[in-house]
Structure formats: structure tokens, C-alpha cells
Specification:
Helix content is 59%, strand content 7%. It is built from 11 helices and 4 strands; from the N terminus they run E-E-H-H-H-E-E-H-H-H-H-H-H-H-H. The protein is of the alpha+beta class. The chain has 2 domains: 167 residues, Serine Threonine Protein Phosphatase 5, Tetratricopeptide repeat (Alpha Horseshoe); 91 residues, no CATH class. A 4-stranded antiparallel sheet has the order 1-4-3-2. This is BRO1 domain-containing protein. It comes from Quercus lobata (Valley oak). Belongs to the BROX family.
Length: 303
């Protein structure tokens, strides 16, 4: 069940083109931001006034903050202090809203079909999708939480000028914090795939925007896991305490995540293998291996 409203106004021609993306260490797709909803009209006869007002207040806060953050996200990636704070505040607003929202879908409640939720792609206002299904809202919330987390990781991994005036670099503290954030982003996306998508009918799933397609969600989750392990591998290489076995395990784990990631992309195997090997050229651990060790490592990952 659930009604659908989807408009790309022009399906055949112009693709969305992001503007200046600023400095980037982590790939982050464009944000999807919510449009206002009148809960009192849809739920006023079914829920208490206090609960309707709480839902309205929580979601309105998100609409306002996302509307401010969406158009400026490329600039806030450069303004690290302001951008980081804004991202964290919006993420907290979503975390506050999610458990209240889940009340609409609890135990298969009929209330999940009462409200038309509409979200629009920040990079293209014409790419708007609305569904009368609260699970679609949950899916969209989890996706935005994951994108905000990836943006936070991006900010942490941008090199900054150190106090001693030497070459800009990423601090150990920032790298450690980014690993936790990558894991959190992957968790949001994994939850969306495993627990939310199955709640939507096959018809609704076919009509989801491409950003919410199962393959895209899985690929982004694997990207987050792969980059998290990549950071751990870099820290292990810099550490005198990390053993060779630890470095080898992390390197193999990283390549496996990236290989699985590209399995969800419509790339030919040769292109995928070439890209992975190119990526490894800049990896210190990979370069320290002998030719036979490199071949064994790639063979073990299925390349």
C-alpha cells in the first residue's frame, strides 16, 4: 500500500550537476531533504494533540535545518568548524525524530499510510518523490543520517595546517574519530537495506529514487566500511606496534570491501579490477609486498 508521487520533470535530458564541491576526501552523494508535512490534517483524528505536535515540531526542525544545510553543503565542507557543527546538529535532530516516527509503523499500524511524505534531491529540485508510507520516511531519514555521517568523516579527513606550520596533515585523533563515523554510516545503510526496504512493496521499491535503490545503499555501506578499514590500515602502518599480520589482514579486508562495493556498479570486471589495482598503487603496505605477495593478495580477493 501507499500512494506514490514522483517527478523528475524531465526524465530524458539534463542530469543534475553539482556546483563547486570544495575539498573532498570522502565521496558523499547529494543530500535528499524533506518538504513540509501537515501532521494535524492527516493524524489529528487518530493521535493525541501532544503527540501530533511533537511529531510536527521534530520534523519541522529537520525541514528548516536541512533546507539551510542542503544548499550550502559544498561550502560547509570548507568551513570546517561551522560545517561540522551544522552537520552534527542536523544529525541529532534526525536521531530525535526517528524513534517517534517509528511509532507510526509499530505492529503494522494503519497510521503508516495516513501521511504523504515528500523528499527532494538537494542537487536537483525537479527530482522529487512522495509516498504515503511511513516506511519511506524511515528509509529517507536513515539515508540522510548516513550522508551526514559521511560528510562529517570528510571534514575530519581534510588536511589542516598544524600549529608548527609544517605541511597540512590529518591528525591521529581525526583519523580515529573518522573510523567510528564510517562504521556508524555503514550501520545506518545496513539497517535500511535489511530492515526497512523489506517493509515496502515491490511496486514501491521499483519507484524509489535511485539514491534509495538497494544496490546503491549496499554500495555506499561497503564504501564506508572500506574507507574505515583503509584509515585503520594507514594508522597500523604508521604504528611501530602493529604486526605484519595485522597490516596484512587489514589490507585484504579493505580490498574485499572495495571489490564488493564495485559489484553493485554496472562496471565491467576488467574496469573494476583495473580501478582497484590503481587504488592500491598509493597504498604503502601494498607497495612493500613482493610481486608474488601482491598477486596472492589480489587472487585472494577474487581479482
Amino acid at each position: 500500500m501507499g500512494c506514490l508521487l514522483s517527478t523528475p520533470k524531465d526524465t530524458g535530458g539534463n542530469r543534475r550537476r553539482p556546483g563547486n564541491i570544495g575539498d573532498v576526501s570522502v565521496y558523499v552523494p547529494g543530500f535528499r531533504i524533506p518538504k513540509p508535512v501537515d501532521f494535524s490534517q492527516s493524524l489529528g483524528d487518530h493521535l493525541s494533540k501532544n503527540l501530533v505536535e511533537r511529531l510536527s515540531a521534530l520534523r519541522t526542525r529537520i525541514v528548516v535545518m536541512a533546507g539551510q544545510e542542503g544548499p550550502t553543503v559544498t561550502r560547509t565542507r570548507r568551513k570546517t568548524q561551522h560545517g561540522g557543527s551544522t552537520l552534527a546538529d542536523l544529525l541529532q535532530a534526525l536521531e530525535d525524530y526517528l524513534p517517534v516516527l517509528l511509532g507510526l509503523v509499530k505492529d503494522g499500524s494503519h497510521l503508516q499510510y495516513k501521511v504523504q511524505f515528500v523528499w527532494v534531491n538537494q542537487e536537483d529540485d525537479a527530482e522529487e518523490t512522495g509516498m504515503s508510507n511511513a516506511w519511506y520516511e524511515v528509509l529517507s531519514v536513515l539515508h540522510l543520517m548516513a550522508m551526514l555521517s559521511l560528510s562529517q568523516a570528510n571534514l575530519l579527513l581534510l588536511p589542516r595546517t598544524s600549529a608548527d606550520g609544517y605541511q597540512p596533515k590529518v591528525s591521529e585523533e581525526s583519523r580515529r574519530a573518522s573510523v567510528d563515523i564510517f562504521l556508524k554510516a555503514a550501520g545506518y545503510l545496513d539497517c535500511a537495506v535489511r530492515h526497512v526496504l523489506p517493509q515496502l512493496s515491490a511496486e514501491l521499491r521499483r519507484n524509489l529514487p535511485v539514491d534509495l535503490a538497494e544496490g546503491v545503499l549496499r554500495a555506499l555501506s561497503l564504501q564506508a566500511l572500506g574507507q574505515g578499514v583503509d584509515i585503520q590500515l594507514g594508522m597500523a602502518i604508521d604504528s611501530t606496534k602493529a604486526t605484519l599480520a595485522v597490516k596484512r589482514r587489514l589490507a585484504c579486508e579493505m580490498v574485499k570491501y572495495w571489490q564488493q562495493h564495485f559489484n553493485f556498479d554496472p562496471w565491467q570486471d576488467a574496469i573494476r579490477a583495473s580501478f582497484l589495482q590503481h587504488m592500491l598503487q598509493g597504498n604503502t603496505y601494498y607497495q612493500s609486498l613482493t610481486t608474488s605477495q601482491k598477486r596472492r593478495m589480489l587472487k585472494n580477493t577474487g581479482l
